[in-house]
Amino acid sequence: MSSGPALTDSHAHLDNARYDTDREDMLKAARDAGVGTVLSIGIGDGPDTMHRALDLCREYAGRTDVPRLYATAGVHPDDAGKLDELALDKLNTLLAAPEVIACGEIGLDYYWDTAPRAVQQEAFIEQMECAAGHRLPIVIHCRAAERAGTGDTAAWDDTLDLLDRHWRQTGLGGILHCFAGTAEHARRAIEWGFLISFAGNITFPKAQAIRDAAQALPLTSMLVETDAPFLASVPRRGQRNEPAYLTGTAARLAELLGVEVDELATVTTRNFETLMRIGS
């Protein structure tokens, strides 16, 4: 087991079917690698299964051989068209559970455009209202229509505009997950109490725009994540990702910022616990 400060994986899809044959071993490996906490993202395969992240938190509660687990609940923008009254009722029930510490991932995805953009935006607003009612922060998914650094910022511009009009005044903040916007987008969100979370794509050769943004921001406003089972960092790119591999992303981000990995682990974990009011 790692002897340094524990890392926090601020975004992982632990209920994904790719872990069905070895989930417990995967979680033990994460703990052995020095990951002390994982935020289990509760979007499931759509609204009908967004409870699975909470189920996992309860299944592994009290275990010391796996990371401490917390959950979110939300409807991903790809499923925005499924956010009916039944789904909203389920979301509100899940957000009331003590293990559920944030609403998400919610937001906008202009890359796949699975749901019309107007539908995505309305679902985003409705879920912000749910989160505000429960006094919980939000976890934001934002994906532009083109790769980061191409100049296409419509999804990020619209996300920040909606946050400005429908969320900023709550003072609850949140997380910009798997950040791939500009440093200016990040700075605006930081002013509203958001943390900026970096994933394994910060290690990809063509991700210089993401690395540039990271270097322009303070560590006190950062988190690290895997987005497991997606976005494994180099040299595991293309493989199934898992929380144990957070160490690769943390090492690359620490290098970019000119700090030791132990400092990055300490500060990002403190950032997470402060935002989520853990231990307060």
In short:
The protein has nine helices and eight strands. The protein is an alpha/beta fold and 280 residues long. The chain starts with 6 loop residues before the first strand and ends in a 5-residue tail after the last helix.
Question: Mind telling me the C-alpha Rg?
Answer: 17 Å
In the CATH scheme, the class would be Alpha Beta
CATH homology superfamily name: Metal-dependent hydrolases
List unreliable stretches of 5+ residues.
none
Helix/strand-derived category reads alpha/beta
Sum up the overall morphology in one term: globular
Structure description:
It is built from 9 helices and 8 strands. The protein has a single domain (7-275), classed as Metal-dependent hydrolases (TIM Barrel, Alpha-Beta Barrel), CATH 3.20.20.140. It has 280 residues and is α/β, with parallel strands linked by helices. The model has no long low-confidence stretch (mean pLDDT 96). The longest helix has 18 residues, at 117-134.
Question: Layout of helices and strands, plus pairs?
Answer:
Blueprint: E1 7-12, H1 23-32, E2 35-40, H2 52-59, E3 68-73, H3 85-95, E4 100-109, H4 117-134, E5 138-143, H5 154-166, E6 174-176, H6 183-191, E7 194-198, H7 208-215, E8 222-224, H8 246-257, H9 261-275
Parallel strand pairs: 1-2, 2-3, 3-4, 4-5, 5-6, 6-7, 7-8
Helix pairs in contact: 3-4, 8-9
